[in-house]
């Protein structure tokens, strides 16, 4: 968790650095497309702050008011980031429309474009780090921040290519058109981010391949039991919640059944990582002859 917190704090510093560079690039050129690129970076900074707060909150242990923990806090951060992206897209579209109705010739200076390119390289490197660590540590807020930065990098590359083309050809109308394309791109990104985060808030089940892995683990490590049924799963941030009913022979002692449950839980955590597992033990007359068959 300390690694995730440090990266979340680092995102704020990187975001401020990139924002400063892109504002310099806009100041040097006056390009509305580069202005749109800089405006998206202000969202990056705000989103990084929200992610840090959410990760800190999600790391707090369960308490009386939140007996299941605070893991879902990261989803709220991802939703907020999606909303901020949408707001930025609308602001960019407004500025681009103004440039279309009242066109002007920006100063496409090489230093300005070089500064913007340097900012994009920094963003690309940091995005790669955030996504890799976010996935390995199962941090939705960190991974969402990384995916957003990837979108920013793609937008920046497109803007630089288009602005360069406008400078060479003299087609200055390309500048606001590019800004509109950037707005559309980040609007789509924001929608995808909100959609995936809402899935987590709605307790969506784990992915089919992960569910199959869970079923296999139960089947292979429940020796002594008869079957497992009513398996349910969900994600809450970095934690996977798993619950199911385990059918055992009626004459089995509580201690023996408990040993089976401990064995299954250890095997599941080895596969899915941090998890909250609830197993309801039932006698064999409660068997449904469906679900997971014990090998």
UniProtKB/TrEMBL annotation:
GO molecular function: cadmium ion transmembrane transporter activity; ferrous iron transmembrane transporter activity; zinc efflux antiporter activity
Transmembrane stretches, start-end: 7-29, 41-57, 78-100, 112-133, 153-171, 177-194
Localization per Swiss-Prot or TrEMBL: Cell membrane
Membrane-topology annotation of the record: Multi-pass membrane protein
Coiled coil segments of this chain: none
Family: Belongs to the cation diffusion facilitator (CDF) transporter (TC 2.A.4) family.
Protein name, UniProt field: Protein p34
Organism of provenance: Salinarimonas ramus
């Amino acid at each position: 968790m300390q690694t995730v917190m440090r990266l979340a704090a680092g995102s704020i510093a990187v975001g401020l650095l990139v924002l400063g560079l892109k504002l310099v690039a806009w100041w040097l050129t006056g390009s509305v497309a580069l202005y749109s690129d800089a405006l998206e970076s202000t969202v990056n900074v705000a989103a990084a702050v929200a992610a840090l707060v959410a990760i800190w909150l999600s790391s707090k242990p369960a308490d009386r008011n939140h007996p299941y923990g605070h893991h879902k806090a990261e989803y709220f951060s991802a939703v907020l980031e999606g909303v901020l992206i949408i707001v930025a897209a609308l602001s960019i579209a407004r500025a681009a429309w103004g440039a279309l109705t009242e066109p002007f010739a920006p100063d496409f200076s090489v230093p300005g474009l070089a500064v913007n390119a340097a900012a994009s390289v920094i963003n690309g490197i940091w995005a790669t780090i955030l996504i890799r660590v976010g996935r390995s540590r199962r941090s939705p807020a960190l991974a969402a921040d990384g995916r957003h930065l990837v979108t920013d990098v793609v937008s920046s590359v497109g803007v630089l290519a288009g602005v360069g083309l406008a400078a060479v050809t003299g087609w200055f109308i390309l500048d606001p058109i590019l800004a509109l394309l950037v707005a559309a791109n980040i609007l789509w990104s924001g929608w995808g981010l909100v959609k995936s985060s809402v899935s987590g808030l709605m307790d969506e089940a784990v992915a089919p391949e992960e569910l199959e892995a869970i079923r296999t683990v139960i089947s292979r490590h429940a020796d002594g039991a008869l079957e497992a049924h009513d398996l349910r799963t969900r994600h809450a941030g970095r934690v996977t919640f798993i619950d199911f009913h385990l059918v055992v022979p009626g004459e089995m002692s509580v201690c023996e059944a408990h040993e089976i449950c401990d064995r299954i839980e250890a095997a599941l955590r080895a596969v899915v990582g941090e998890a909250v597992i609830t197993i309801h033990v039932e006698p064999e007359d409660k068997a449904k002859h469906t679900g997971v068959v014990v090998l």
